[in-house]
Amino acid sequence: MRVAIIGGGGLVGSCAGFALQCGGIVSELDLIDVNGDLVKGHTLDLLHGASLAADQRIRNSGYEVIPHCDLVIITAGLRRKPDESRLDLINRNTQLFLTILDQVKAAGLSQEAVVLVVSNPVDILTYVAAHKLGLSWSRVMGLGTVLDTARFRSLIAEAMSLPATQVSATILGEHGDSMVPIWSHAQIAGMPLSHYPGWSTQLGDQLFQRTRGGGAEAIKLKGGAGFAVGLSIREVVHAVALDSKRILPVSSVIQGAYGIRDVALSVPTIVGRSGVVAQLQLELSPRETSALQSSARVLRETINQVIAANPDAAAATASRPASPSPAASKAVSTSGRGMVRVTMGGSGR
Ligand SMILES: NC(=O)c1ccc[n+]([C@@H]2O[C@H](COP(=O)([O-])OP(=O)(O)OC[C@H]3O[C@@H](n4cnc5c(N)ncnc54)[C@H](O)[C@@H]3O)[C@@H](O)[C@H]2O)c1
């Protein structure tokens, strides 16, 4: 699989490159960035380690490679200031993002490619990309709450002295202030986390607050998130490359799950070679469902503001709906323990 990282010279893009090199799954990696020397330096550094990692072709490239790429990751963007909300970033980032989308489209992006948006505010930019790129809605994903979920699990594990990979806890909704912790399904080694000795609701609240502020904490301490976001990107890229159908909280344009439409955010999503294979509506507590719906309202309001302030994004949005025909949705029984509503992604347009 050939993967391009637009913004590959930046902190997030270069950490994603290193994570993908260590992962050894993708065969070709193209780093693209307007900062020529920096991206050349990162490419050279990665290349130096190739003999100790994997047989991959690693190049510093331009947009001309886009038609040959199976997956395009966009990490180019402006960083959040310490006290700036992700949504405030939108005014500074949308114009830059639209320029990049134009370049990607003009280069001749394949209809079979998958695009992974990482730049913030990721849910808004995922929605814009889904409308602007002319791909099926299911081929455009955002990193969504994959990083937040990783942080959440790791912080719970650290506080409880548990092995991090055995903590299972998910964050859904916006990658931002309205994100929703899904306590009703949180587990340690397959058992309810709420029953584990030493666990309390108060500790849970503290850990969630720290998770929600994790990005700002990393910005204050080291200028921005890098390693964990790199690994989060790798998780999604490998699910696509291996067609593994992993269930990940990526962001995509929601097609009716939880009563939500016409907004991109994170719900449990099956990810495979064609991007979003299906969006799942698993049963949540009434409180969690309503928090998810209010997260969707927050994002919808911001999209409206973006469309009002950005004629370019508005024109693209109006001309190319991200859901041209109603997506197939069905309820599937899970051995008498309730129903899961499944909204299938398309394999083409
Ligand atoms: N979704 C998430 O979970 C998540 C997590 C962390 C950071 N982010 C976001 O990722 C983005 C990048 O963060 P960073 O810390 O890597 O910033 P950074 O400043 O280190 O890197 C951004 C890179 O983009 C490049 N760039 C700018 N315009 C470009 C263009 N037109 N074409 C190609 N490259 C271009 C810059 O030269 C720079 O190297 C930000 O928007 C940040 O908020 C998202």
Automatic annotation (TrEMBL):
It comes from the Bacteria. Signal peptide: none annotated. Pfam families: Ldh_1_C, Ldh_1_N. NAD(+) binds at G7, G8, G9, G10, L11, V12, G13, D33, N93, V118, S119, N120. The active site is at H175. GO terms for molecular function: L-lactate dehydrogenase (NAD+) activity; L-malate dehydrogenase (NAD+) activity. Gene3D superfamilies: Lactate dehydrogenase/glycoside hydrolase, family 4, C-terminal, NAD(P)-binding Rossmann-like Domain. GO terms for biological process: lactate metabolic process. Residues 315-349 are annotated as: Disordered. Keywords: NAD, Oxidoreductase. SUPFAM superfamilies: LDH C-terminal domain-like (SSF56327), NAD(P)-binding Rossmann-fold domains (SSF51735). Residues 1-142 form the Lactate/malate dehydrogenase N-terminal domain. Residues 145-308 form the Lactate/malate dehydrogenase C-terminal domain. The keyword ATP-binding does not apply. Its EC number is 1.1.1.37. Residues 315-331 have a biased composition (Low complexity). It is an enzyme of class 1 (oxidoreductase). Substrate binds at R80, R86, N120, R151. Belongs to the LDH/MDH superfamily. This is Malate dehydrogenase (NAD).
